[in-house]
Amino acid sequence: MVFRKIGPQVLINLLFILFSLACLFPLVAVLSVSLSNETDILKNGYRLFPKMFDMSAYAYILYKPLQILNAFKVSLFVSFFGTFVSLLVIAGIAYPLSREDFKLKNKLSFYVFFTMLFNGGLVPTYMLISNYLHLKNTIWVLILPYLAVPWFILLLRSFMQKIPHSIIESCMMDGASEFRIFFQMILPLAKPGLATVALFTLLQYWNDWWLSLLYIEKESLVPLQFMLYRMMNNIAFLTNSSNMMPPAMKNVILPSESARMAMAILAAGPMLLVFPFFQKHFVRGLTVGAVKG
């Protein structure tokens, strides 16, 4: 009888432990490859534990530490400041779209949805940002294009629609203004939805390298992802151009695979530290629209 009660729970816990270990396996493998010798990787492939401990990949990436540190600063500022401003903009658009008494609700919802299907194209966008808005080689060109992502607006609107309208009506009867209702009532109640959108927005800003490739030429404004992208292209070019190298450099093996994994560790590390703070609200936010029984 005791086994019948405890057995299924033990089995479920064991399955979840094995699943958690399986999720950790790729992270351990990436860290192991980044600390492995490039020659050993080429001969024996990837290993869960490095056969020969080697820091050459990190030495190559961190050859100019001040440059990497500046790229980290740019990425951190763009990611966190951009996420904060983007949340205000997205919430400011999603809130009126969630109100049934908003007269332009349908037209504005169609406009937001329409921008998910069509855009102006790369060349007109480049001309607008560079020639008319004069945002090229400024920090704002890395922030403004992602301020109001249509899918995030619709996601947060769906969450705000779950907030009872009677709360808003009672606040109005007490004389509260729309701004006070929005900042003191709606935003605190929509915290799970805001956390979900904030995490998605933060990852979008942090992982972006496309905007810097198009609009950034100043070294002081290069974010981390674009700098790692350039390093990886340089390694690939030098590896494929070994015949053009001087004789003394032909036998030098560049840390290609190990450097790739080291870059993944440097790029993903900060986000792995941030995710636990969003996890509780993130899980609740993903249940937006779920059917309650």
Summarize this entry quickly.
With 293 residues, the protein is mostly helical.
Reported for the largest beta sheet, the result is: none
Order of secondary-structure elements: HHHHHHHHHHHHH
Poorly predicted spans: 288-293
The global form is flat
Strand content: under 5%
Q: Look at the structure and give the mean pLDDT.
A: 81
Task: Please tell me how large the radius of gyration is.
Answer: 25 Å
Total number of distinct structural domains: 1
Family: Belongs to the binding-protein-dependent transport system permease family.
Main location: membrane
Domain ABC transmembrane type-1: 72-278
Protein name: Aldouronate transport system permease protein
Walk me through the structure:
- The chain is mainly α.
- The chain has a single domain (63-286), classed as MetI-like fold, CATH 1.10.3720.10.
- It contains 13 helices and no strands.
- It has helices spanning 2-34, 38-44, 56-61, 65-98, 105-117, 122-132, 150-160, 165-173, 178-189, 191-207, 210-215, 224-240, 256-286.
- α4 packs antiparallel against α10 and α7 (150-160) runs antiparallel to α10 (191-207).
- This is Aldouronate transport system permease protein.
- The chain crosses the membrane at residues 12-35, 74-98, 110-133, 139-160, 181-202, 261-278.
- It is found in: Cell membrane.
- It comes from Paenibacillus eucommiae.
Which key features would you list for this structure?
about 290 residues; mainly alpha
Please give the structural blueprint:
Elements: H1 2-34, H2 38-44, H3 56-61, H4 65-98, H5 105-117, H6 122-132, H7 150-160, H8 165-173, H9 178-189, H10 191-207, H11 210-215, H12 224-240, H13 256-286
Helix pairs in contact: 1-13, 4-7, 4-10, 5-7, 7-10, 8-9, 10-13, 12-13
